[in-house]
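Can't attach files on this board, so I'm pasting raw text. These are the components:
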Amino acid sequence: MIQKKICMVGAYGVGKTSLVKRFVESIFDERYHTTVGVKIDKKRLQMEDGELTLVLWDLAGDDELEPLRLSYLRGASGYILVADGCRESTLDIAGDLHSRIAGVHGALPFVLAVNKMDLEAEWRISEDRLARVTALGWPLIRTSAKTGAGVDQTFSTLASLLLQDLK
Amino acid sequence: MTCDPGVIGIFSTLDIAVLKPTAHGVFTVAAPPPHWFLPLVADPIGDDSLVSAFPFLDSFLPNARDFWARVEAGSLRSGTWVQRDSPDSESAFEATALRALSENYLLIAMLGEEFQQRRSALQSARSRGLEKEALERRNREMERITGMTSDFLATMSHELRTPLNAILGFSALLTQGKGGALPERQQHFAGQVHQAASHLLALINDLLDLSGMEAGRMRLHPEAFTLGDELQETFSTLAPLALQRKVALRSDAGCLPLPIYADRIRFRQILHNLLSNSLKFTPEGGTVSVSAHLEGPWIEIVISDTGIGIPEAEQSLIFEKFYQVPRSKGDPLEGTGLGLPIAKGLVEQHGGKMSLRSRLGAGSSFTFTLPSGIFNRGEL
Ligand SMILES: Nc1nc2c(ncn2[C@@H]2O[C@H](COP(=O)(O)OP(=O)(O)OP(=O)(O)O)[C@@H](O)[C@H]2O)c(=O)[nH]1
Ligand SMILES: [Mg+2]
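---
Top answer:
Structure tokens for the assembled complex are below.
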């Protein structure tokens, strides 16, 4: 059985924990319970050529109080960068984390999830900006941990990127 | 399991499991472990049993081995991880790779009180951050809507003015008999049309001013002049109204040379709005007077009347848009209800303040400040 470690990274409060909860347990909580350090969950996926277990590392949000510890990514096969569509700065932070991770661990497969799509009316990241990100070749998926939109797709997109790497 | 007697005493008092890696990939317990440790970790203790109890160690054990091989003495901390013990309770842990006296140790600690304190500090800082950002988002949205409304008003006002000017012009021609003499009754009707159209134009101009101020689009062109320059001008335009209402208009001679540094046209508008308001609410035989003095970098101008006064309940409403003081029946509705809010807005655009003091039966006085230009000309 193949097991892969993937990390959830991004600014605080963007919905990393909520995306994992939605994906693993199919639930959503409006309340904000910040993650300190890291919390690990597992989820089995049925892929075309067999079973894959994702070991999901839900990392604490990156901020001045607790900068991301890059050592947590050791052994990771890929990561999900999460930004909050309502907060433009979180996309800058995602970009910054992406280059820091690549600097230490090399180029790993990743997916960018722009979360809180259910609040699209309050989104503050322009279509232009998202188009520029896509133009860089970043796989971008709009998600909502609240409605579940795009959540399975995010993880399965990353999973198939990992399996491509295996071949 | 073997225990190293030297460290037993130290570690048995802490909530820490102390393990020693051996040559063949297993760990020995170097001190009596805390009560939570053994039920979690299966014997024999090796990478597999440790990682299945603490998946986090999957990444840390390789880091620890690198560290033991690399350094003479010191410690490497793993950072915190959180595990769920039951559906609604979590525990936090931290591991440390330690090298001391040429010996390697792996410490696993359950974090207690201190961790909870750090957690709640982070929780409140981050929650506050999220709330602040959400609030800023709502404020920007409000500003955007206000801006849109003001833009709409501004365009509409422009659109309305064009046909209105035609109505004003042609009704004036009719009353003056320019297209041939009209019967007196029709001339009277044309006069009514002209008067109503003038009122509408005043209302539209006021709306334009207000929306301009609200959208932050009002440009001021300040210059230096004296109170006397503008007061005389305004008094002469208002003289017919004063005469009609049999109210005297006065000013303190001493205040006429006082300097003002403001937008001259807007200042005339402030004076005009305040004075005509006072004239309207002062009964026959009364007086409306203007006085002023310098107050630091400001000129403070007071317009007081011997009118009926404004009841306390209405004093805060009087600067609201479209508020009209209730009047006796049959009194024609003059003004737009925008004169006072505009005067106040214009004063505030200059950085000044407007206030009202009034007592029923004892008259009212409006006080406002504008830059005198004496100390702070550069600031405007
Ligand atoms: N409306 C909406 N709210 C969401 C969504 N995802 C998360 N939230 C809310 O956003 C807040 C933060 O979510 P978390 O999942 O705790 O965010 P996080 O990225 O794990 O935060 P840290 O652990 O502090 O880094 C919570 O109040 C969630 O309920 C979403 O898709 N839509
Ligand atoms: Mg979290």
